[in-house]
Amino acid sequence: MRSFDQLLSAIRKGASAYEANECYAALCDTIDEFARSSRSAEGDYLRGMLDREFNRCSTTESIQRMQAVADHGGAPPFIRMSAYTNLAAWTKGHPDYSWEDNFEFRREALRIADQRGMRVAAIVILTNWLSVHVEQRQPFARELLEDIRKRIALLSSIQHKNSTDVQQALANLNGYEARILLREAQGDGPVEAASKVGRARELFAEAVDRRKAVPHNRTNAQVAWADAMLEAYCADANLSTQEVEEPLERALRSLDSHACDLCRGYYHHTRARLLDLLAQRAFNEDRSAALRNWTAAREETRRASTCYSRTGHQNLRFVGELFRTIEEAIAVNERPHRVFLSHKSADKELVRRVHAALRELGFDPWLDDDAMPAGALTERALVDGIEQSCAAAFFVTSRFADEGFIATEIEHALHEQRNRPDLFKIIVIEMGPGAMTPRLLSRFIHKRCDTELEAFTEIIRALPVKVGTVHW
Predict the structure, then answer these.
(1) Alpha-carbon gap, residue 43 to 31, rounded angstroms
(2) Which helix (H) or strand (E) holds 145?
(3) What's the pTM value of the predicted model, to 2 decimals?
(4) Which contiguous run of DSSP H or E holds residue 426?
(5) Cα–Cα distance between 20 and 55 in angstroms, integer?
(6) In this predicted model, what pLDDT tens digit does every residue of 403-451 receive, in sequence order?
(7) What is the DSSP annotation of 50-119?
């Protein structure tokens, strides 16, 4: 057993591809020795762990193999407990397993640990279980956290308290407590919130420090730090983007010397979520910046998907959902955001007020006074304005008539609608007594409005482009 642990530890600390293959071969020899000595359950368990460590099988296959070990009647209690612990870790979020299945694996592992007096193992199991409660925002998460800390304090020997498992559990507890504090800060005043955010930062730093000896654990802790800060940043918990960027940058530096698809997938997934959020927040004020962030986020989701695909990780499903959302946002916002406003000169002031409201929402409304420079050819300018727009809104009053430049605008709007049926809309707003929609426009969206607000609302509803996300 010692040789297996030593070799596996060497792999986790980082090894070249050649060294890793050498270690894999040596570990397989160790497992074969177990099989020859009639300890098949231990051998099956170790091979399952080994193939999982080297990404030589999918998550689903790993679960099935570990389930067979857990159900093995002749397996030693420690092996069965370890198998249940792995089942709990691997079925978390898996589409084929419910949360009740997951909790049953945890309960069985804890039962064996308590029956056998394996205190350190029980602490590890409860700490892993706490992660689920924190993720699901269960109100008793803090109570469970304090219970685990008490269990650690009651350990009889310094050797136990300083063991790798306990130190790992302490690092995890720091991270979970930090997440709880960040969530509590969301309902606090500025001073209290800043104090809790500061304490959360300290706890994350301690968690990373406790894991610094193992590249995989250190990198994972750094991305988890960024992930938690991102969750708080989404809720505007008095945080800046820098709070998310800094731990992500440290994780990226760690990845330079740690070739792990799980860590890389987690990193790229978290960065994609950050870029998506930044795009949403930039949408109303700077659409080009929003589009740049969404484009970068799309590339990060592709990288995350590649990494998770190689390991069969269950997060692949969530990355796919994020990718589709970002693709849709890019497709919509690569379309023009100009809205052509057609009207008679006598209705200029009415249209100008709608123009101002559209501009406030980030659209680029076309109005002849602003869009046509001195000396421009009027008809050419009108045609360009319509071609560069996503919609043409016709303000029909008693003074509106299908003649002159109005006729030109209708003709070219109809042409654009035929060429771009899903990307260009014709909107007709009837206002005031005597307003009559021209025959050529009567088959399109036309609404009778009594106020400018109603007219503005109908235009927004009819546009093929979405309005940005509201944020405080």
Answers:
(1) 5
(2) helix 141-153
(3) 0.62
(4) strand 425-431
(5) 12
(6) 667 888 888 999 999 998 888 899 999 988 888 888 888 787 778 888 8
(7) HHHHTT-S-HHHHHHHHHHHHT-TTS-HHHHHHHHHHHHHHHTT-TTS-HHHHHHHHHHHHHHHHHTT-H
